[in-house]
Amino acid sequence: MEPKDRLIFALDVASREEALNLVELLHNDVGLFKVGWELFMAAGPQFLLDLVGNYDHSRIFLDLKIYDILNTLKGALKNIVSGVALVTIHSDLPAGGLTAILKEIDGGFKVLAVTLLTSLSGKNLRGLGYAAEYAEDPSRLVLLRAKSAQAAGCHGVVCSGQEAGKVKEACGQDFLVVCPGIRPSWSAVRGDDQERVVTPFEAMKNGADFIVVGRPIRIAIDPVAAARQVAEEMTAGLAARGK
């Protein structure tokens, strides 16, 4: 893959029209488009069908972090729109039941478990009642959940670029690592809610297979130029790790 093919652009907008405009603008400069809750609630599953119908297949990252009882999760995964490439679920699901479900799913997409939101810090974990070992070092919780997800049959995980290398070391190079919380040094995001952040270069050097970038590209004066600059930094990161 070219570095740009590893770049996922987050369509975190509130209207179908704005999303389609961004897809048209950036489809030659990013690999996949992330559809999360904001856009999904605004445009619905039909948007996914339109995106699949108008562009190459397997360019959608459906990031709904599906979390429910196993039977409901199973029904949701069986109804994913054909053509979606990546789908997220929560990582804290019963491993045995999840394994059985994943063995039944053959939708052509890969399932990623979300380990720990990049907006959460150790301080947040302490406030939520997590054990001190995880509050002091969130990477321990990420690794615990990554290993559990792999054992259950997930294809990979979503984690911060800070933890990408540790996940690869623990789970192997074929286990996919997708990293949000990407903040290029030249990007200023007003009211930023991200905590565990890295640059595109750092994420790729650390072992990320894909990175997710939204606001640094979307709010740029020239989004296309911003996407290309991110891809250049990704190229340097890949070279630094020898790929």
Task: Explain what the structure shows.
- It is built from twelve helices and eight strands.
- It is α/β, with parallel strands linked by helices and 243 residues long.
- An eight-stranded parallel beta barrel has the order 1-2-3-4-5-6-7-8, surrounded by six helices.
- Strand 6 (156-158), helix 9 and strand 7 form a beta-alpha-beta unit.
- Helix 5 crosses helix 8, helix 8 packs parallel to helix 9 and helix 10 packs parallel to helix 12.
- The model has no long low-confidence stretch (mean pLDDT 92).
Give the helix level as a range of percent: 40-55%
What is the averaged pLDDT score?
92
Helix run count: 12
* Envelope shape: globular
* Backbone structural class: alpha/beta
- How many extended strands? 8
Radius of gyration: 17 Å
Q: What about the largest sheet? A: 8 strands, parallel, barrel
Q: N- to C-terminal separation?
A: 11 Å
What strand line-up does the widest sheet have? 1-2-3-4-5-6-7-8
Task: Name the poorly predicted regions.
Answer: none
